[in-house]
């Protein structure tokens, strides 16, 4: 059960980061999603937008800790580490 909870936390962390990136593009830029991603990638800011999207993972992490889901919270931390490393290569 331990590895399954960590995997669920990892997947939820990735999805939460994608939702955060989507909200950032919709709320703080005048682009639609596909045009915004292309423009942001063209200017070289895609890694920064993904990093800003991971701010929602902090709220998810605190929520999971409050619910005593430590292993899922650990999966969220691994998702943040994975996204941080992946932004280095984008």
Write the layout of secondary structure elements.
Layout: H1 2-28, H2 33-43, H3 46-53, H4 55-66, H5 70-89
Helix pairs in contact: 1-3, 1-4, 1-5, 3-5, 4-5
Keywords: Membrane, Transmembrane, Transmembrane helix
Transmembrane segments: 7-25, 45-64, 71-89
Concise overview:
The chain crosses the membrane at residues 7-25, 45-64, 71-89. This protein has 90 residues and is mainly α.
Protein traits:
90 residues; mainly alpha; 87% helix
Q: Could you characterize the architecture of this molecule?
A:
The chain crosses the membrane at residues 7-25, 45-64, 71-89. Keywords: Membrane, Transmembrane, Transmembrane helix. The chain is mainly alpha-helical and 90 residues long. It has helices at residues 2-28, 33-43, 46-53, 55-66, 70-89. Helix 3 runs antiparallel to helix 5. The chain is elongated. The chain starts with a helix and ends with a helix. The relative contact order is 0.23.
Count the E strands: 0
Taking pLDDT < 50 over at least 5 consecutive residues as the criterion, the unreliable ranges are none
H/E element order = HHHHH
What share of the residues lie within helices? over 70%
Give me the number of helical elements: 5
| Gap from first CA to last CA | 34 Å
Q: How does the helix and strand content classify structurally?
A: mainly alpha
* Spatial extent as radius of gyration: 14 Å
Keywords: Membrane, Transmembrane, Transmembrane helix
Transmembrane segments: 7-25, 45-64, 71-89
